[in-house]
Amino acid sequence: MRDVSVIGIGQTKVGEHWTTSLRHLAWEAIHAALADAGTEAVEAVYVGNMLAGALSRQQHLGALIVDFAGLRGVEAVTVEAADASGGAALRQAVLAVRSGAAEVVLVVGVEKVTDMVGASGTTAQVAAADADHEAVHGVTSAALGALLMRRYMHENGVELADMAGFSVNAHANAVGNPYAMFRRPLKASSFVKGSMVADPVNLFDSAPAGDGAAAVVLCPTEMAKDMVPSPVRVAASSLVTDAPALHDRADPLVLAAANTAAGRAYHAAGVVPGDIDLLELHDSFTVFAALQLEAAGFAQRGEGWTLAKNGDIGPQGRIPISTCGGLKARGDVGGGTGVYQAVEVVQQLRGAAGDCQVPNARRGMTLNVGGSGGTAVVHILESIE
Amino acid sequence: MELPRHWRLQNQRYGLVGEVCDQCGVKLFPPRDVCPSCAEPAHEQYTFSGRGQVYSHSTVYSAPAGYEEYAPYTVALVKLDEGPMLTAQLTDLGDQEPEIGMPVEMVTRRLRAEGEQGMIVYGYKFRPVMSQGS
Ligand SMILES: [Zn+2]
């Protein structure tokens, strides 16, 4: 197997892009990533997307996007794994380069949520859950987060205010990210007063859905060293599934797929959690951040919340998370999320994260979760000496 | 309209009919024909008692399409006495606040009205267990 590196990244600002179409967003990110990589010789494109069929009445994004981006004829296909689509698409690209099937491969994660208004976004998002046994009962993504959160608080003696640190950290970090949806700080005292979405999940607990696209260009590490000044190695890539329905999991408060995916990635990269300098996790709800810190080995079961309370997750903390705002403040880009996470880690490892920079970042990890935990994708990225 | 889909699921939705694994005896709801514990076939039908406890609950204020008129409503994870957990709405709460650990029992209710023609989808919900002997 060949070693794989990232040679180009690109992203659009996340937000409500009323005047920009899905294909145009994707093109912007692709254009930026190819310019960054200094090549146009792309042999394959993997698209990460979750909602276009429901919200834009558009499938077949592979052909649509490469055609619009001036790459007509290039192999292209969508990879779908709900909110983990972006991470899953990145993994397919890594496999394509590793195997020798292609040299230069591009991944683009894109989501367009503002083509429809009203309840359609909530309705489309819950398609990640079990339609016959969860969604039919009127459950939403936020409600699934809320069911986890209430149980988490109950079992671990946690108050709502104890979770504030996750959202406060995300918002503080997003202030420095020009691509973030909400570049304003959030006070811990405001967190508990957010209007209720699905009790106990409130507005300040849940990530806002936004339009956006991010892209990454990959090639063999051997080739990368001659192409760009600071390539970033893909030290590990893993994808693991679990039951998509929350009620079908052996222990709903354990994200088993994330736990296994992280374990495999640590093994492949030859590292332990303590070797990770920053973690971009899937903080669509604060309880998700807590559960993922536990699943990825940064806290014991039921103790992930203490990392937020003790200030361990800040840019100078033991394990910085959501360093560019995370889903909570950069914005939740649905199936594009996993690619945004990779772009953000590459920025950090290049030392090019500006006001979001984590000091001495050498190794970063992404954890992209689909639905309430049915898919987990982990990538570990390293700067090359 | 998703008539065929709702028709197909009516046994489990109205009667809480699940399955027992041929191999390891674990009881399954919803029915899935392949046991997730041992991957062996599970074909024998099993009707659940409809009794259980609330594992967690949430009140939904921002509802998906087709459910807006019912909001706010309470959804829960219910741990059935026989083992499996399921997702359902809580109903007939009256003045009672839902609580983790609350004993509940299954009833059949309207889940939603669908489409212009107003096809009504029925299924299980759970209510607090009525006090004995009253
Ligand atoms: Zn079995």
Secondary-structure map:
The complex is a heterodimer of chains A (385) and B (134).
Chain A: E1 4-11, H1 22-37, E2 44-48, H2 52-55, H3 61-68, E3 75-79, H4 85-99, E4 105-111, H5 120-125, H6 141-156, H7 164-174, H8 188-191, E5 196-198, E6 201-202, E7 212-220, H9 221-227, E8 232-241, H10 256-269, E9 278-280, H11 286-295, H12 304-309, H13 326-329, H14 337-350, E10 363-370, E11 375-383
Parallel strand pairs in A: 2-3, 2-4, 9-10
Antiparallel strand pairs in A: 1-7, 1-8, 4-7, 5-6, 8-11, 10-11
Chain B: H1 3-8, H2 10-15, E1 17-20, E2 27-28, E3 44-47, E4 51-60, E5 73-80, E6 85-90, E7 103-114, E8 119-128
Zinc ion is lined by residues 21, 23-24, 26, 35, 37-38, 40 of chain B.
What structural keywords apply?
heterodimer; A: 385 residues; alpha/beta; Peroxisomal Thiolase, Chain A, domain 1; 9-stranded mixed beta sheet; two-stranded antiparallel sheet; globular; B: 134 residues; mainly beta; OB fold (Dihydrolipoamide Acetyltransferase, E2P); 5-stranded antiparallel beta sheet; 3-stranded antiparallel beta sheet; 2 helices; 8 strands; 9% helix; binds zinc ion
Protein model, in words:
The complex is a heterodimer of chains A (385) and B (134). Chain A has 14 helices and 11 strands. Chain A is an alpha/beta fold and 385 residues long. Chain A has 2 domains: 4-117 and 210-231, Peroxisomal Thiolase, Chain A, domain 1; 124-205 and 233-383, Peroxisomal Thiolase, Chain A, domain 1, CATH 3.40.47. In chain A, the strands form 2 sheets. In chain A, strands 3-2-4-7-1-8-11-10-9 form a 9-stranded mixed β-sheet, with helices on both faces. Chain A has a two-stranded antiparallel sheet with strand order 5-6. In chain A, strand 10 and strand 11 form a beta hairpin. In chain A, helix 1 packs across helix 3 (61-68) and helix 4 (85-99) packs across helix 14 (337-350). The longest helix of chain A has 16 residues, at 22-37. Chain A starts with a strand and ends with a strand. The mean pLDDT of chain B is 90. Chain B is globular. Chain B is mainly beta and 134 residues long. The chains are: A alpha/beta (385), B mainly beta (134). Chains A and B meet through helix 5, helix 6 and strand 5 of A and strand 4, strand 5 and strand 6 of B.
